């Protein structure tokens, strides 16, 4: 057996049905057969997390019939996958799936009886997606002749704080994961861990935020001092733009942890924004690879940026469904206590501010937030700020960002960005540049964001068409 240890993460697309799961298992088995130790981390089957959220909402609203119909449909999907993967009706896999669905049904019924959906019960319900897909992956690995054992995030040692819906690992988690998984690995058994979830010190199930299976994989990677963490995707890796929007988007060979964090934060759906944080101290590389083209190197994410001459910008991304909250009050906003109370009120609501800008006359502050957070932000400002301020909301906004370490100290980058936007007749609502100079972001009307993305992508020569020449 070699010293190499890989953590392999499979997202919803790579777990969506029996065929995808079998293929994912084949990719892991290939490495195991080479003597590499592998920890597999799985997401829910594509669409299941959203379905579970809808089930929870329906139960809270009193529509138990709809919740039960959805649970039945989900159950059929898991049983069909198990059957297609070769599980007999009396097998352990089928029994486990049946028990889990029964517990899920009871939890949902509890929400219905109480008509109350706390963040804690929502996490319990939503984590079933990952709990249900782990036995399927274990089965697929066994069918390929591998020994495997599935564990929930908590069983694998992931302990978190109590921020249900957006939990963070506690420092003790790393030692605990090592204790829980080393024995299995030493015995030649591949652990299959349910991603996205952990548990509090008291054993309540938590989730790590949407897209959190990437985060689970890197937490485990750090704990085990993995050689690399691999995120299997349905794209070649991190691309210069969302390939669904920009047809000639190109794969990026190397990115730094900082660059990939900015990209994820500014909407590149390819990775959880905090996923690389556990890797930063140790410098463990993260590789994003295409499951349809496993021999392609994909994108390597590492500590050091690799600047490409003549390419200060590496990618353009967008966050959709954004609202701008304009806070105004001539003369009032210049008072430091008033500004402090604005940010205090927002912090108490735990709202993520995507962009902030203050006019130099200090009579206006603009805040960009996700539209789902807008009402909470408005209410918090109205309740939490004592002085007379006007607060208004502008919807249908998107934030577009360009990212790349090469723009540090480089002149003319914003000029090129603004020229590309002007060429598309796009009006800029807000502008911000991070002090790290890894990104420049602008808020624009949502209707223009796709055209703006394509125009900016072309202006920085990011596409295949240009780079090939
Ligand atoms: N800059 C980008 N690079 C790569 N993929 C991107 C980018 N922006 C958005 N995406 C989208 O992210 C998707 C992959 O992420 P995700 O849906 O989380 O996969 P999974 O859930 O299967 O892991 C791709 O299908 C792609 O459409
Ligand atoms: N299933 C969770 C966690 C996750 O990471 O999923 P995916 O790997 O499919 O993005 C979600 O949808 O948020």
UniProtKB/TrEMBL annotation:
Similarity annotation: Belongs to the aspartokinase family.
ACT domain residues: 327-396, 402-469
Protein's recorded name: Aspartokinase
Taxonomy, superkingdom: Bacteria
Signal peptide: none
UniProt keyword Repressor, yes or no: no
GO molecular function, one term: aspartate kinase activity
Catalytic activity: L-aspartate + ATP = 4-phospho-L-aspartate + ADP
Assigned keywords, A-Z: Amino-acid biosynthesis, ATP-binding, Kinase, Lysine biosynthesis, Nucleotide-binding, Transferase
Entry keyword annotation includes Transferase: yes
Pfam families reported for this sequence: AA_kinase (PF00696), ACT_9 (PF22468)
UniProt EC number: 2.7.2.4
This protein's pathway: Amino-acid biosynthesis; L-threonine biosynthesis; L-threonine from L-aspartate: step 1/5; Amino-acid biosynthesis; L-methionine biosynthesis via de novo pathway; L-homoserine from L-aspartate: step 1/3; Amino-acid biosynthesis; L-lysine biosynthesis via DAP pathway; (S)-tetrahydrodipicolinate from L-aspartate: step 1/4
Enzyme class, first EC level, given as a word: transferase
InterPro entries: AceGlu_kinase-like_sf, ACT-like_dom_sf, ACT_Aspartokinase, ACT_dom, Asp/Glu/Uridylate_kinase, Asp_kin_monofn, Asp_kinase
């Amino acid at each position: 057996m070699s010293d190499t240890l890989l953590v392999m993460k499979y997202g919803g697309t790579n777990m969506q049905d029996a065929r995808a799961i079998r293929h994912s298992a084949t990719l892991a088995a290939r490495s195991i057969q080479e003597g590499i130790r592998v920890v597999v981390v799985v997401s829910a089957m594509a669409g299941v997390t959203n379905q579970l959220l809808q089930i929870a909402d329906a139960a809270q609203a009193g529509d138990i019939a709809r919740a039960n119909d959805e649970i039945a449909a989900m159950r059929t999907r898991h049983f069909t996958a198990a059957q297609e993967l070769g599980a007999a009706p009396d097998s352990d896999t089928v029994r486990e799936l049946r028990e889990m669905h029964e517990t899920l049904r009871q939890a949902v019924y509890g929400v219905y009886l109480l008509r109350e959906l706390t963040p804690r019960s929502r996490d319990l319900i939503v984590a079933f997606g990952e709990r249900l897909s782990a036995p399927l992956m274990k089965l697929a690995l066994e069918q390929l002749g591998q020994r495997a054992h599935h564990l929930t995030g908590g069983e694998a040692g992931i302990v978190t704080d109590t921020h249900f819906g957006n939990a963070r690992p506690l420092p003790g988690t790393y030692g605990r994961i090592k204790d829980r998984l080393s024995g299995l690995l030493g015995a030649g058994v591949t652990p299959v861990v349910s991603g996205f979830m952990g548990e509090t010190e008291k054993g309540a199930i938590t989730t790590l935020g949407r897209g959190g299976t990437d985060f689970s994989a890197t937490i485990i990677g750090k704990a085990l001092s993995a050689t690399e963490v691999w995120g299997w995707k349905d794209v070649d890796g991190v691309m210069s733009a969302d390939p669904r929007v920009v047809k000639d988007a190109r794969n990026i060979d190397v990115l730094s942890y900082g660059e990939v964090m900015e990209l994820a934060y500014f909407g590149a759906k390819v990775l959880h924004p905090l996923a690389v944080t556990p890797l930063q101290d140790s410098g463990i590389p993260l590789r994003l690879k295409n499951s349809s083209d496993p021999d392609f190197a994909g994108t390597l994410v590492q500590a050091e940026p690799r600047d490409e001459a003549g390419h200060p910008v590496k990618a353009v991304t967008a966050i959709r469904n954004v609202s701008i909250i304009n806070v105004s009050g001539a003369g009032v906003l210049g008072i430091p206590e008033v500004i402090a109370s604005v940010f205090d009120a927002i912090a108490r609501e735990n709202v993520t501010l995507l962009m902030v800008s203050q006019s130099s006359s200090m009579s206006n502050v603009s805040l960009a937030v996700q539209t789902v957070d807008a009402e909470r932000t408005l209410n918090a400002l109205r309740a939490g700020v004592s002085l007379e301020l006007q607060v208004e909301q502008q919807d249908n906004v998107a934030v577009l960002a360009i990212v790349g370490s090469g723009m540090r100290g480089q002149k003319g980058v914003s000029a090129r960005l603004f020229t590309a936007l002007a060429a598309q007749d796009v009006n800029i609502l807000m502008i911000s540049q991070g002090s790290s100079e890894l990104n420049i972001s602008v808020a624009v009307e949502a209707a223009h964001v796709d055209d703006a993305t394509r125009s900016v992508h072309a202006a920085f020569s990011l596409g295949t068409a240009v780079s090939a020449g």
